[in-house]
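Changelog note: in this version the structure field was regenerated for every chain. One regenerated record is shown below for reference.
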Amino acid sequence: MLEALRGRSARLTRADAIVASGLPEDEAGRALTMLLKEYRSHLSATESGELLYEFDPAFARRDAVSWRERAATVGSKLWKAFTFLFKVAIVVTLVGYFALFVAMMVALVFARSGSSDNDDDGGFGIGGLFWFWGWDMGSDGYGRRPARLAAREKRAPFYKRVFAFVFGPPEPAVDPLQDEKQIVAYIRAQRGRIAAVDLVRLMGWTFPRAEEEVTRLMVDYGGEPEVSDDGVVFYTFKEVRKTADGSAEGISPRWASERLEAPSPLTGNEPGTNMLIGVFNGFNLLAPFWIVPMFESRLHVSLESSRFVFWDFPLAFSALFFAVPAGRWIKARLEAGRRRARNDQRRLLGRIFAGSGARPREELAPTPALGALLDRELVALGGDIAPEPDDFGRVLYTFPRIEQEIAALARVRAAAPSVERDAGPVVFSSAD
């Protein structure tokens, strides 16, 4: 069957597949089902209830990893390695160079008088370095913590705030199967019967994306495609319904329109903290142009042999220290636009599913952004333009696919036998 259908991009019936492959009807049906599970594909149905199969012309596997995904994986690993190494450099370099350049300034101040009083380092020293970063050496090491530090013990240590300035706040742990859990729980709650329209409303997807995902769900969770009396393709997941603890069905889900994405904070720090960190690094960035030349001139020394230490490295490090958050800021602005687009689509879907029948544009898309999205994605969201305007001459929009699939699902769910939930009587238990 795979060889017979390879390269065909048009939809085909089971009879088309039988003619192309020469397989008997039963074997052709099993082969088509296996191909649906393994390769990217779509299912649709005619008014008479005939299933139409549509496969990717290149027969790309569902688990195939694209070059973009591979590049993203490599980039993520490189970014993690860079983050670790740069954090190590920050701990030593930011304060180390700041202290070095301050010491050079002190030397300049005392250069004229010839003073060499270095007995008091201002209480900074090694212990002060630990205190600056927010590490507590304890009463046996550094002594009692300052009262103002004890009052702020709930705040993140300063070194963590510096890391947040550069790389952003720590991201909360995210369950990689969170969406899957939500979808599977929804399938069970809907008596094991769903269609593409469910994923459109639940996840905020377009119908093409929902169709692709619903066939994947069929593969992963043992679903079977069926056709309702009025030609709607839906998927039955009987095994997902089985339960031993009597989990309730019919729980109201949280639709995509109720789960708008929120922006992530750029640093998570207070403005004063960000300003202080910027001053520290800005001082290190300018010092090679200002303090180092003065130090050479006043003390009649040459640091040319140590150019990397006093010029090249602090300049490169300080510039990179500012460049990383600047790049994150640019990325955040770009992501903000994509997030607004996704949220707009969810808002539009919320308005579409909130009513029925032909409705004017003003009701569905009261803002210019939603109006542009409605025009651009009308077909992908299952919509169409009514043939006649309303009494006020306004263009009306209809969503026949959404209404048809919702009505068909209501009927098949009502007819779903409750016995499918029963796991059966216990005949053996290791506890006995």
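Spot check on this record: The CA atoms of residues 24 and 345 lie 45 Å apart. The beta strands are 41-45, 51-55, 193-194, 224-227, 233-236, 359-360, 384-385, 396-398.
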